[in-house]
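Human
Can I borrow your eye for a moment on a structure tokenisation matter? Give me a protein, with the fold worked out from its sequence. Write it directly below this note and I will take it from there.

Assistant
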Amino acid sequence: MTAVELFSGCGGLAKGLENAGFQHLAFVEFNKWACSSLRLNFPGELVHEKD
């Protein structure tokens, strides 16, 4: 299954979904520190740093 995550935060839910077999299409988050964490924890995934 695939997922697009809105208001992603640092990616805790995303990690759980990944462990359950989901693949992410994109993340949307406005906090620059959370986006940095997403980019580190999910390399190659699309992170939209927007509100």
User: Anything to note?
Assistant: Helices lie at 12-19, 32-41. The chain has a mean pLDDT of 95. The CA atoms of residues 26 and 43 lie 12 Å apart.
